[in-house]
Amino acid sequence: MNKEQLQQICSDLGIKLIVGETFIKEQAGYYENYNQLEADDNQWYYSEMDFEARPVPEKKDRKKFDSQEDSIKYFFLMTLKEFHFNKIHFPNNPIRKIKSLDEIKKFFDYLGINQECYSFDKKIPQSVLASVLDNQIVVSYIDQNRNKQFSTIPFNYDKGIFTMYKLTYSLHLLKALEKKFIENGVLEKEFTDEDIEIFIK
Is residue 125 located within the same domain as residue 177? Predict the structure, then answer.
């Protein structure tokens, strides 16, 4: 992802950025945390500016990149994750009262989540799989090759259901964005399994 793609997508979403030759950062209010990229000696560094450590803010989760495009894509994914946080974690979320896989499917249908994003019994490429084992749920992300990219530990039903919801809804939002911006020519290729893992975990 390059600067132009980042700016076009973020502008469409309403995410405000400040972009310079050697930096990119979210436009935030006074004492609000924000993500940023900084260039130094042909390398790019991602960090989150944390203002909880007042009066001097701290750089959290610092990550180095040799490629500008890789750093921009990482910055975008982390910023998008924060942008969608309240859409996924909203008050009085009905997912907290759901007790069965049939109820999850109905809730996913209500949210408009594509059925290709999840499964309870088969490995669909780039999807979330929920496996029920002895009244516990293990949630996995299935990659393009139908392998398990990562799996959770066995959770009790309530936590397993919420984890499946969080990962599946996140995946749906990213794939919907991917489809929109590939179709309008802003993005040239799909997000990788590694990109998806960064965004949904």
Answer: yes
User: How many other C-beta atoms are found inside a 10 Å radius of the C-beta of residue 85?
Assistant: 11
10 Å CB burial of residue 49 (0-12, 13-18, 19+) is middle
Instruction: Tell me the two tokens of residue 78.
Output: 């982390």
CA atoms within 13 A on the CB side of 116: 7
pLDDT tens, position by position, 46-96: 999 988 766 667 788 889 999 999 999 999 999 999 999 999 999 999 999
The residue out of 83, 113, 148 marking a domain boundary is: 83
Instruction: Give the range of the structural domain holding residue 28, as residue numbers without chain letter.
Output: 3-83
Considering the domain architecture, whether residues 143 and 70 belong to the same structural domain is answered as no
118-119 and 127-133 beta bridge pairing:
parallel
Q: What is the pTM of this model?
A: 0.93
Residues 39 and 121 in one domain: no
What letters, b where the CB count within 10 A reaches 16 and e where it falls short, cover 133-171?
eeeebbbbbbbeeeeebeebebbeeeebbbbbbbbbbbb
- Domain count for the chain: 2
